[in-house]
Amino acid sequence: MNSFVQTLLFTTAAGAALRPRQTNDGCCFQLASVGMVNGTVLEDHVGDLLLGGTFQQGGFCLDKTNNTIKDSLGHNCFMRAPDYQFECYQGAIGTTAFDIASPKADGKSYLTYDNSPGVFYACPIDSESYDIYSSDKTDKSGCVPVSLALLDETAACSATATAGNSTLSIRSKTARRTAHQIASPTRPLRRQSSSKTCSINPSAPSLAPYQLSHGNSSVPNSSNETSAEVIISRNYSAVFDYAIPDTFPPTNSTGESSLCALQFRMPVCTSLPKGYPCYSFSGLEQEVLANSGMTFHLVDDDGNAPWNNTELHQVFPGENTIIGTFECGQVPGYGESRKMSWHVSSVRDFALEFLQAGVGKSAQFQDGVGAWIVPCQ
Description:
- The structure is a single chain.
- The protein has 3 helices and 23 strands.
- By secondary structure, the protein is mainly β.
- The chain folds into 2 domains: 15-167, Trefoil (Acidic Fibroblast Growth Factor, subunit A), CATH 2.80.10.50; 211-375, no CATH class.
- The radius of gyration is 23 Å and the shape is elongated.
- It starts with a helix and ends with a strand.
């Protein structure tokens, strides 16, 4: 009897350890996260994909004809509204279009989706496990960006991998590093958070800086000529100066104090206005693997808004990122436009060079890449 029970338990445990891969000649693989959270992608008993925990390792197959993924049970996988969580359900169909990017400098192929660079977000469930979401997830508080690399992929995946992606047509002046060349981050990524949430209407008015000052990162107050060109790198930083008129934003009907935000916009190059130069970017691999980014130090504000000057901020192509929020409005009795200035510096060799749209009264481009003050709704 004991022998039978032991055999039964062993067989059950072995069967739960790893789901069998789908038996076809297509592109099949497993997934592992690369970034601040590293681990194989697991699948729980209801079809949610996660990192960490005791569930079995997920197995997946890509159908290139319709850019869909199924798990090893034949369930469709997707990330759809309103949660945008990565999950696989029987009979459920999502609109997520998956693809595989050609091997990067680290020799790995990565999963992408919806013609985007393939940035996923790992959001903590508890101290050991993370759910996986697309970049469309609205509230990313506590989440960290990761990439999903293919593991143990079949030969068909090599033929499936796309050579290029329109959202990755970013000129890079910084040499890419392989994973083993990048030092492990010394602290986890912490995103700027606010006690008040901020959602932004796409048609909301926005303010560009009225001038930009460029200087060496080690000397925040040094500056040279003002222009629309911005360079953020190990050796260069920039100061963004804003003048907020007393009419911005329009007074709300309740008469309550409005909330404003500093928002960084980074459209993909192919969506920029005609003639707008593409930006130079150190790359997604460098940003995610090295946990690099920018700090926005509030160096001047007539309203003395509370602000976290040391928070690390990461920006990605195709995303508009809220850097932080503050109360709109003027200082009582001041009578002039409210002046606010941020000194922006590179962290861990992050590099970004771009043309800030909207600078100056005769700016050639009124909308595009850069930092803007916008009202929350």
